[in-house]
Amino acid sequence: MHKLSPRFLVAAALLLLLALVPVYAHWQGEPFLLALFGRVLVYGVAALALNLLLGFGGMVSFGHALYLGLGAYAVGVMSHYGIESGWLHLAGALAACAVVGLVSGYVVMRTSGIAFIMITLAFAQMFYFLATGLDGFGGDDGMSLFAGSDFGAFRLDTPLALYYTAFGVLLAVLGLMHRLIHAPFGMALRGCQANERRMRALGFPTLRYRLAAYVISAMICGVAGVLLANLTMYVSPSYLAWTTSGELIVMVVLGGIGTLFGPVAGALAFLLLEEGLKLLTGHWMLIMGLLIVGVVLVSRRGVYGSLRDTPWHGRNAARRQPAEQAQGSLGETP
Question: What is the pLDDT of residue 100?
Fold first, then answer.
């Protein structure tokens, strides 16, 4: 019955539309649509990664662009030395994001509130200025890629192959997030968000749970960086800038913080709104800012989060909160 909920139907409809974008673009002769919606898919993956921390862990990371940039630079640096293997690009991005996420996460997890936000921002800015100083890799100007990542069976040097690869990654990340947030790990992570002191009193190693979520989020964001580098065929320090981190936060909040599909809906709304306003006026940023503020004030749960999560049939039964089940899951030994 849960599958008939409005949220499920909207998410299914949007995924179907995203899957059919290449067909429509070919029919209308508009290759630009593949690039535009390809960005939606890539940033949707990155927003999903951030939502694991922000929506389910209560950790506001203002430096998640760091891992998007690391993934992109893994592709750029290897390509610079003639390594075109996509598997090596992916492995390098995952390894870099895992190491940096583990080291930086171990530091930031010992803080909270404003300190957490500022330290994540500081780490991202450190790597941003490091990237601008890499003159051998373009420095502040960045560098272009001459070929897409080669995965053997396919290469990411054609818009269609890249689009459906990004779409497949998005589906895989959605499935992973669904499993994570409904597993004991996800229940414990949400328990840390609700009351970390009580979770520690119950014997849960909250630092490990939060750090694991941080590293997983960083690695997923690194995968989005690999896709972004192949999408633009360009790598730039701007990928690591604080403005990119801010855009990811806006996408999560706009779509619906703490919902499974909300970040994807937020990325879709944000990027389409940005592109549409650019066609209308040069002052699009002012109008967009006002629209985002208006959406947040009208619906604090976001565009997708404001939809009902209960099925149309059996609503009275669905209103009963499964607090006893959640409490039982959290009470199990992790």
Answer: 95
